Amino acid sequence: DNEGVDLEVDYTIPPEGMRWLLQYGITSQDAELYKLGWNHEAQMLVLVNMPDYYQGRNFSGKGPKYLSRGRKPLLFYGGGGTIVCVEDVVSAIKIAKAGHTGVPLLGSSISQDLQEALISRRSPVILWLDRDKAKEAVLASRNLYSKGVDCSVRITAKDPKEYSKCYRDWE
User: Shortest CA distance to 73 belongs to which of 96, 95, 54?
Assistant: First the structure.
């Protein structure tokens, strides 16, 4: 059901949304670059807004923390050599800021479309998921590796967005 996917987005993010982004090192310049915005009606920080998909962080105090609707798109942030697949958009932006390519899975599974894109890009891939998704990460990594992708897994206690800008320990 893609009805209502067309969101009204204000690209001036109110203080509560900016405070939330800043705690992860995402600045107003980053918000502008990655087209993050605000939906007043839902009180939602809009992280992805495309014709047939949106995802946002809910600030209304009611309902789930994240809201999304539509068909999940393939998103690549940045353009560095190593592709780092993570669960969420803010983590992907942090990966891009560190000089790599961040791919938000918008969940924790790798779609057929993304699998094909990773195979064709021929870049090393890191699947960086949190501890509760370790089993899925290892299975997905083995699957990609069997298709010729140089793929490794990184499991941490928290999402990548929770860590500082210094990702030098990846290489």
Answer: 54
For residues 1, 8, 105, 149, the Cα torsion angle rounded to the nearest 10 degrees is 100
User: What single letter denotes the amino acid at residue 40?
Assistant: H
Residues 87, 105 contacting (CB under 8 angstroms): yes
Backbone φ/ψ region at 140: left (φ over 0), alpha (ψ -120 to 50), beta: alpha
Q: List, in sequence order, every beta strand (DSSP E) within the chain.
A: 37-39, 44-50, 53-58, 66-70, 83-86, 101-104, 125-130, 151-156
* Contact in structure between 5 and 70 (CB atoms under 8 Å): yes
Q: pLDDT of 46-100, one tens digit each?
A: 999 998 999 999 999 999 999 999 999 999 999 888 999 999 999 999 999 989 9
